[in-house]
């Protein structure tokens, strides 16, 4: 499926806005994600991983055209890790949120999984 660059740009902007929104809002109400488990893992860590997987796929889909894939792969990976870190560090400034290094590690794992998915997609598309 081929999407226009304009649509992909808006998808990336919406994705980043969602991450920012989730980083600065107080989410836990009567149900606490960090106390529940899914597949034996804390649900909040699993959600952190799942939230950051699309970054690499979206950015590579938008800018990783022929001849520039390797360059944009590394730029996307670096930018994704920065976004993962900033989304965790911004919580230091908010009195109703807490910083947790494991959140950053889960965010980074999502970026790496997204990198593996986008890299695998390119390899299978070339065959």
Task: Please tally the helical runs, counting DSSP H or I stretches of 4 or more residues.
Answer: 4
Instruction: State mean pLDDT (0 to 100 scale).
Output: 82
Q: What is the string of helix and strand elements?
A: HEEHHH
Intertermini distance: 18 Å
- Strand % is under 5%
For the CA atoms, what is the radius of gyration?
Answer: 16 Å
The coarse overall form would be globular
Helical content (DSSP H or I, runs of 4+):
55-70%
Indicate the structural class.
mainly alpha
* Largest sheet entry: 2 strands, antiparallel
In total, the number of strands is 2
Poorly predicted runs are: none
Strand order of the largest sheet: 1-2
Structure, described:
The protein has 127 residues and is mainly alpha-helical. The chain has a domain at 43-127. Helix content is 69%, strand content 3%. The chain contains four helices and two strands, in the order αββααα. The two termini are 18 Å apart.
List keywords for this structure.
single chain, 127 residues, two-stranded antiparallel sheet, mainly alpha
Topology summary:
Blueprint: H1 5-24, E1 37-38, E2 41-42, H2 43-63, H3 69-89, H4 101-126
Antiparallel strand pairs: 1-2
Helix pairs in contact: 1-2, 2-3, 2-4, 3-4
